[in-house]
Amino acid sequence: MKPWEVVIGIETHAQLSTQAKIFSGSSTAFGATPNLQANAVDIALPGVLPVLNKGAVECAIRFGLAVGGTIAPRSVFARKNYFYPDLPKGYQISQYEKPVVLGGKLSIQVGESEKTVSLTRAHLEEDAGKSLHEGAAEIFQGRSGIDLNRAGTPLLEIVSEPDMRSAAEAVAYARALHALVRWIGICDGNMQEGSFRCDANVSVRPVGQTHFGTRREIKNLNSFRFMQQAIDYEVQWQIATLEEGGSIEQATVLFDPDSGETRAMRSKENAHDYRYFPDPDLLPLVIDRQWIEQIRLQMPELPAAQRDRLMADYGLSAYDAGVLTSSLELASYFEAAVAVAGQANAKTCANWVMVDLAARLNREGLEITDCPLSAARLGGLVARIADGTLSTKLGRKVFDALWSGEAVSADEVIAAQGLQQISDSGSLETLIDELLAANATMVAEFRAGKEKAFNALVGQAMKATRGKANPQMVSDLLRRKLA
Amino acid sequence: MIEQSLQAMAHSLASREISSVELTQLYLDRIARHNAQLNAYITVDPGRSLAQARAADERLARGEGGPLTGIPIAHKDIFCARDWLTTCGSKMLSNFVSPYDAAVIARFKAAGAVVLGKTNMDEFAMGSSNETSFYGPVRNPWDIRCVPGGSSGGSAAAVAARLAPAATGTDTGGSIRQPAALCNLSGMKPTYGVISRYGMIAFASSLDQAGPLARSAADCATLLNAMAGFDERDSTSLDRPPEDYRRELAAPPASQPLAGLRIGLPAEFFGAGCSPAVMQLVAAAIAEYRKLGAETVALSLPSMGLSVAAYYVIAPAEASSNLARFDGVRYGYRAPEYRDLNELYSKSRAQGFGAEVKRRILIGTYVLSHGYYDAYYLQAQRIRRLIANDFAAAFRQCDVILGPTSPSTAFKLGEKAADPVQMYLSDIYTIAVNLAGLPAISIPCGFADGLPAGLQLIGDYFTEARLLNVAHRYQQASDWHLQRPGGFV
User: Fold this and answer.
1) Counting C-beta atoms within 10 Å of the first and last residue's C-beta, which end of chain B has fewer, N or C?
2) pTM of the model
3) What is the mean pLDDT of residues B445-455?
4) Catalytic residue at B175?
5) Residue ranges of chain A with per-residue pLDDT less than 50
6) Mean pLDDT along residues B261-271
7) d(Cα B187, Cα B457) in Å, to the nearest integer?
C-alpha cells in the first residue's frame, strides 16, 4: 500500500459579537421568538436598503491585526445570488473579489510541535435565516417554518490555506482560531449556538505528489470532536476509494454524528452559479490608516505574545505557556493568581491551574469563567504552599474548602482547621525519637537494607501528626537519626 | 385653480381662499370623471386623502403651513406608502399593502402634502410606453390612441390632464424625462444620490433616481426642495448641506437673463434617428436660448452611441437580482398550486411577472452568469466610465448640454410593443445621463402634429438649481408648457 498524504484547508464562519445585524438595526441576540428580531430590511420588504454596521468592520480589522494580515484600504460587498426560503432577498451580501482582510498567519500546536498555518483571506458577510423542518409538527402541520432572526447576523468568513496535514492539525487550527476570535472579543465562540462553525476541505494524495487531489468539502462542523471524527472518516473513505481504483468527485458532504459517516449533499455538476456582482446598494468599504491605528491601540496582548512573555518572565515551558494562553480567560486567571502568589511561584501556580483547577472544572462541567474559586484565592493558597505553611496534600484540602466557599482565604482555612504544617524541628525531633523507640522492628529492617521500612516510618510520622508534619523535614530527621 | 403654480396654490391655501379638503376633493372629482379614460391611477383612496387634507387644514389654520402643505400630490406606485396598496404595476405586488413609508413619501408627509393616489406605471418601471403595467396601459391625454411614455406614464398623464397638481416619478433610463416630453410636462432627474431611494422599489439600484413631474420648472424646484436630502438609510444617498433649488429663480426678469451661459450641443444628439419634426422644435428652442443671451458650443460625446447597449446589460443585471425577493414566500403573489419549493418559486414568478420583466430578468441572469460576466457586465461598466468621462470633458467646455429628450413624439399604443429594441431606442437620449449619474430636466418645446415634444437640458453633478433656472428662463419666454390637452374639463 502506498503512503498517502492528507491535505486540509478550513473555512470558518465566526459570528461577530455586534449588538446589531450587519446591514440592519435589528438585535443579534440568540434565542428570541422566531421572526421577532427581523425588521423590514431583514425580511427584504420591497424598497428597503442595507446600511453597513461599522462595528462589524471593526471586528474584521481586529482580526486582520491579530493575524498580521493586510487590511484592504478598499474592499467591495458583492451579491451572491440564489433562491432559498431562508434567504429573503434572494441573494446574500458577501465579499467576493475584494475581501477586507488578505493573508495572515496563525500558529498552532499539535502535541509538542508547533506549526504555522497561512490564511488566505477573511471577509465580511451576512448570515441567512433558518428553515425549521422538524420538531414543530404541531405548529407547522407538516410544512416548513422560517425563522429570520438570524438573517443578517454579521459573519467573518476566515479561509485558511490547505496547510493542515492531519485531522489533529485541523482540530488544532480550529481550536487556535476559536481561542483567537474569543481572545480579541469579536466572537463569543459558542459552537452549540452556531457562533463558530467550520467547513473542512479534505483531499488526499500519494506522498511526493505535488498537485492536490480532488477535494470534498465537509460542511458545518460545529464541534471539535465532530471535526476530528468527520475528517478521520473522510480521509479513510477517500483512501479506500482510491485504493480500490475509484476516483474522488468534487462534492459537498455532510457529517452525520450518529453514523460517524460523511455523505454527499451535492456534486459539482449541481454547483450553483451564484452570479456574483458588486452590490450597487453599498459603496466600497474604505478603511483608512487612522481607523486601523485607532483599533490597534485598543488591541489586547495577543496569545502568541503572551505565551512568549510567560516563558521569558516565569520560566514556563512552551507547553505550559501554550495551555495557559489557550483562552483569554484562562490566561487572565493565571496572571491574577501569580500576582498574589508572587512571580517566583509562577510555576507552582501554573501547576495548580493546569492540574488541580482544570481537573475540578472538568469534573463539574464548568468553564474558567464560572470558576467559584477566584484567582486571588488560588494565588493565596499557592503562596502558603510555597512558603512551607502547607504541604501539597494539605493544600488540596484547603483548595476544597475554598472551592466550596467555606472560607474566603487559605489563611482562614489553615487557622480554623489547624492545618498549619509542623515545621518546628524541636517538636519533630521529639516525635521521631518516640517513633524510633516504638518501632524497633522497622528500624532493624531498614538497617538490613529494606528501603520500604523507611517510607513506613515517614508514614507513621505523618499519621501521628494527622498529615501536618513537614514531610521533607521528617525525612531529613529520620535519615540523620538512622545514619 | 388647477392652472395655478404650486407656489400660487400654497398661497391660496395659506390665505384660506381654498381649503386643502376642497382642493383635494376637486382633484378627486376630476380623477373620478377622467381616470377611466386615461388609466393614470392604480389606487385612489378618498377617505385617506381627505383625512390628510383635514390635518393639513388644521396646520394651515395654525399658520404652520409650508410651500406644500395641503397640496395633493400623486405618487408613482413604486414608492411604498404606509397602508396604501403599493403594486409597482405588477401582479406580483397586486396584494401588497406597504407597512412603511418610503423616504420620499415621508418627506412629503412631513411637508404637509396630501397623498392624492398611486399612479400607474410600467411593471417594475420596465418600459418606455406604460404598456407593460399589470393594470393596463395608460393613455396620453394629448391623444388617447397614444402612449404617455414610461415608465412614469401614470404620473405624467395625471399631471397633464390636471388630475393632479404635480406628481413624483422615478428615472432609471429616462422614465421621468421621456413621459414628461410626451405629455408636455417638466420632469427632472436629479444627480444620483440627491433623493433617498429608501422605500422606492428597486429596478436598477445604481441608476434609479426619484424626481418630480410638474407643469413647470419652477414647480419642479418646489417639489425637489421637499424630496432632496441626505438619508442614512440609503448608503448611496449623498451627505450634502441642504440647498434651496428655487434660489436662482427669484432673480428679476431681464432681457438677456442667460448671458454668459454656454450651452453644449453634442453632435450625437443631432444626428439621424431623431424625427425631423422634433429636431425642428429643438432648433427653435436653441434660437430662443441665444436670444436669452446664451452661447452655443458644438461638442461631441463619442461614447454615447454605446449607452443603450451598456444600459441593457447593467440595468437587467441589477434587476435580475433586485427582483429575486419576489419569490412568493413572504408577501406578494403566490401561485395557488405547487408541489414543492421549486414549483412555488417558478409558478409564482412565472404567473406574477409580465413578459417584459421576465425578459429583463433573463437578460440580467445571462449577463451575470459564469463565463459571461467579464464579456458583458464588466465591459458595460467600462463603457459606463467612458460615458462619464465624455460628459466630464464636455462640461469643461460648456455649462449645460442641450438636445431632444425623445427621438419622437408620442407613438401609438401597440406600435412598438412587439419590438423591444425599437422600444429601447426611445430612451437613446436619456440613458447616458443615468449611466453617468448626472442631473437632467425635460421641458416642453412645442408641438408636432398636435403632440408635444421635449427639450432635454443636462447639467454637471449637483447643478440642479442652475438647470432649473435655465429651464425656468425659457418658460418665462415661452408658453409651450402652459398648453393643456383638450377635454378633461
Assistant:
1) C
2) 0.90
3) 98
4) yes
5) none
6) 96
7) 11
- Between B96, B199, B318, which is nearest A280 by CB? B318
Report the DSSP pairing between strands B451-459 and B72-76. Answer: unpaired
ipTM of the complex, rounded to two decimals = 0.96
Query: Please, which residues have CB within 8 angstroms of residue A1's CB and are 6 or more apart in sequence?
Result: A243
Task: Name the closest residue on chain B to residue A87, using Cα atoms.
Answer: B325
Distance of CA B337 to the CA centre of its chain: 38
User: CA end-to-end span of chain B, whole Å?
Assistant: 13
- Determine the distance in angstroms separating the CA of A51 from the nearest CA of chain B, rounded to an integer: 6
C-alpha cell of residue A147: 425563522
Residue B81's pLDDT is 98
Residue B373 to residue A283, Cβ atoms within 8 A: no
**Residue B255 pLDDT > 90, yes or no?**
no
**For residue B151, is the peptide bond before it cis, meaning its omega torsion is within 30 degrees of 0?**
yes
The model's pLDDT over B328-337, given as tens digits with 9 standing for 90+, comes to: 999 999 999 9
Helix ranges (H only) for B304-430 are: 307-322, 341-352, 355-367, 373, 379-394, 420-424
B23 has a chain A CB within 8 A of its CB = no
Q: Contact B93/A50, CB-based, under 8 Å?
A: no
Contact B373 A277 (CB under 8 A): yes
Cβ atoms of B133 and B123 within 8 Å: the answer is yes
Our answer to whether residue B151 is catalytic in this structure is yes
> At which residue does the C-alpha cell 467550520 appear?
A198
- Kindly report the nearest CA distance between residue A86 and chain B, in angstroms: 9
pLDDT recorded at residue B224 = 98
pLDDT classification of B88: cutoffs 50, 70, 90: very high
Give the domains, in start order, of chain B with CATH numbers: 6-257+467-482 (3.90.1300.10)
| Closest Cα in chain B to A43 | B330
